[in-house]
Amino acid sequence: MKDRSFVGRFFGELLLWINAFIEFIPGAIGTRVRKIWLENYLRIGKNLIIGERVSFICPQNIKIGDFTCIGNNSFFCAEGGYIYVGNQVAFNQGVHINASVCGEIRIGKKCLFGPNVIVRTANHQFSDPEKYIRDQGHKCGNITIEDDVWIGANAVILPGVRIGKGAVIGAGSIVVVDIPSMAVAVGVPAKVVKYRDGKGGE
Length: 202
Prior knowledge:
CATH architecture: 3 Solenoid
Number of domains: 1
Structural class: alpha/beta
Strand order of the largest sheet: 2-5-8-11-16-19-21-22
Distance between the termini: 66 Å
Order of helices and strands: HHEEEEEEEEEEEEEEEEEEEEEE
Radius of gyration: 19 Å
Helix content: 10-25%
Number of strands: 22
Number of helices: 2
CATH class: Mainly Beta
Strand content: 25-35%
Largest sheet: 8 strands, mixed
CATH superfamily: Hexapeptide repeat proteins
């Protein structure tokens, strides 16, 4: 039993070393090697481009569509939930897509994510002042980002929201409520200021 446990740990560590090495291979060769390697773990479509130092936690719970591009230093975690990404989605550098505790993140086709965007399905609960925050668990919610959405740099998308088709989220905004289709929303918290189809703002 000890020998079997040691072998399991050894191969687990070896896999971590291989993943770490592959994450740092630069250029077109690195992109190609990462795609070939990740096909063993991720459900990925054709022509996926993956930058350097991109991490995938629990890749068996992640599905990525065709012709998607993921920038350097990005992070995808589905340890407690699921992540679904449509076709032709572009993630800039440092994007953080996190379903680490629970919930689902569903991203439609042809969406654009600026640098350092955070999408997270869980928030810490803190209602009881007699307990440490980290001991109070999480409040979870699914996140849906429909087709053709552009999310600007440093925006944060919080649990339980739906962003409608064709919407634009301004840089630095924090989305805590649903955003309608074709809306342009900015601010903290994000509010609709106008519509791309000329309906006017709120």
